[in-house]
Write a structure and sequence with these properties.
Helix content: over 70%
Oligomer: single chain
Number of strands: 0
Structural class: mainly alpha
Strand content: under 5%
Largest sheet: none
């Protein structure tokens, strides 16, 4: 038990998201059982994706909040559920930058930096301007104590950084950000 406002926020978030996802699951079951529905298979897949995405985001945000606020805190309990839901998203619909960057972040939080980089590089291939992927990619190299790799990521970012923590990396690693 954390015994802090963050723990209460996590509990409240789980209650609220679970209420919503349970309701969406019931709606999906009702629609699937209705032979006269106008909902097609793709629409139902999108509904299933939204449930899995909500569960993946919930677990990932809890893990990341704990991990990045204090790496000594155990956030591992949320990672398996985050990965399960996010991987389910990648099966339900072609994965885009959101799902792939969330998978990368989940692997970063679980300290599997090689797997995190694999996903984050896919994000950059899809959208070379997606700042969040560069930020998390730089974090993987920092975690592995590879400052030259962090600097290489920063030098590859094609625009001026907007994420405050990412901006700090440029100063910390003495890399000039693009204008």
């Amino acid at each position: 038990e954390l015994g802090c406002p963050l723990e209460e926020l996590i509990k409240q978030s789980f209650r609220e998201v679970t209420q919503i996802t349970d309701l969406l699951d019931e709606i999906s079951k009702t629609i699937r059982g209705n032979t006269g529905t106008i909902w097609d298979r793709q629409t139902l897949r999108q509904l299933d994706w939204s449930v899995q995405n909500a569960l993946g985001d919930l677990n990932l945000n809890c893990a990341a909040s704990l991990h990045f606020s204090d790496p000594a805190k155990d956030s591992s309990q949320y990672i398996p559920d985050a990965l399960k839901a996010l991987n389910r998203c990648a099966v339900l619909l072609p994965p885009g930058v959101e799902t792939l960057s969330n998978l990368g972040t989940a692997y970063l939080v679980s300290e599997d930096t090689q797997e995190a980089r694999r996903y984050l590089n896919k994000v950059i291939q899809l959208n070379r301007y997606y700042e969040y992927a560069y930020y998390r990619l730089a974090q993987t190299w920092e975690h592995d104590k590879r400052p030259e790799k962090v600097a290489a990521v920063l030098n590859k970012f094609p625009g001026p950084p907007q994420i405050p923590e990412f901006i700090e990396f440029f100063g910390k690693y003495n890399v000039r950000a693009r204008d």
